[in-house]
Amino acid sequence: MKQRPPVIKKFPPPRIEIINLIDVLITLVAFFLLTMVLPENRGQLEIELPRAEQALSTASAKEVVLELTVGHELFLNSRPVAREELPPLLSGYPPDTPTVIRADRDCQYQEIIDLLDLCARSGLHRVALAVKDGG
Q1: Which range has highest mean pLDDT (10-19, 53-62, 77-86)?
Q2: What sign results for the dihedral spanned by CA atoms 74, 79, 83, 88?
Q3: 44-133: what CATH class?
Q4: What sections of the chain are H helices per DSSP?
Q5: Residue 102: beta bridge partners?
Q6: How far apart are CA 83 and CA 105, in angstroms?
Q7: Number of H helices, E strands in the chain
Q8: How many CA atoms lie within 13 A of 107 on its CB side?
Q9: Higher pLDDT, 123 or 132
Q10: Which of 1-5, 21-25, 66-70, 82-86 has the lowest mean pLDDT?
Q11: Strands 79-81 and 64-68
């Protein structure tokens, strides 16, 4: 008697599991949203702000932001500037422009006073010192 060859069943046609792709897509969307939203322009410099029990938010689109790092680097609206360039730049702003000084907590007190004095001489009298909320 002749034996028949074994019958081999064909595999079903390949298909793409959409459920797994949706999971990956949601994970990627969440990752990109979080990486785009969390870093703000204000967090680019390595400045450790001092803490205060009651900190008020002074965020405004039309404010002058002076940042002073512990390495004595000075930034005007996130752009590095030399101290000599600062008086004419500050004089170009209207007198009622809010000004925020973000200085590292390890900066010398005299440096902050010098910035406050420079703001006053430039006509900027609405000056605030940025702090981290201590609560």
Answers
A1: 77-86
A2: negative
A3: alpha beta
A4: 18-37, 86-91, 109-121
A5: 67
A6: 20
A7: 3, 7
A8: 26
A9: 123
A10: 1-5
A11: unpaired
